[in-house]
């Protein structure tokens, strides 16, 4: 198939593109390579996909012959209401995998405008592209943050999600509502994926595992919020990508709007996660105990039964395996 992957230079987008390329699909990757975190990491991910990145700072289109001539990368802002429609017109996609977004809960307190531009205006341009070019299936990234202060554990897609506690979460919930509306009005399938605390090699530098590992390596204290009383459904990147690619590559017989959790189906204490990092770094972390941050929630835990029922898939990588793989990559990438 010919598949558009937005956010292709991002953490999940890079891994998803790589998997689809290796499976023989023709992938067009889109990303604006913004400076939310170091663009060098994004460019290094693209280099892994065979892209010559030296001209990307100037907005030039780059194509690659890597993997049987089936990957093209385009530097573009999602909210560009002229360029995005032209992209759909040129490439005639079969499926769209929309993973691009302005990420981060805490950053949404500092720069709310970027979330509206990328996550709402950008999502609308993707929906319109799908509508006008007869795309049969749009798969898009949502987030476990939509559950807000939900106290029912584990989080089920049947639970109400109308009390988000960050602007980021509100934009992701808005995406689900927008997708539902477009499926209802224009009869193409949309599938939202609520990701739960994704980690692994090539991960984002603003994520806990990256911050902790980097601080330990530099003998600096790590910031442990809510005094360590946090639980997360840590989900390894390969498990996320397996779920995404199964859904993206499964033909849709009729137009439906579905939402699935993709998580490891267990809540792990933050302290246990830190211990695994310490073990693999062979060094104990200096800990700075801090109160919970605005927009954060104490616990996440995915009920993945719907994904297992519809796609016969259940993530199962343990944090012992996943953390080791991340730390091994981190040491190699920074030549420690």
Automatic annotation (TrEMBL):
Pfam families: Epimerase
Gene3D superfamilies per the UniProt record, alphabetical: NAD(P)-binding Rossmann-like Domain, UDP-galactose 4-epimerase, domain 1
Ranges for domain NAD-dependent epimerase/dehydratase: 3-263
Keywords: NAD
Leader sequence segment: none
Domain of life: Bacteria
PANTHER family documented for this protein: EPIMERASE-RELATED
Name of this chain's protein: NAD-dependent epimerase
Organism for this UniProt entry: Croceivirga radicis
Lineage, broadest ranks: Bacteria, Pseudomonadati, Bacteroidota, Flavobacteriia, Flavobacteriales
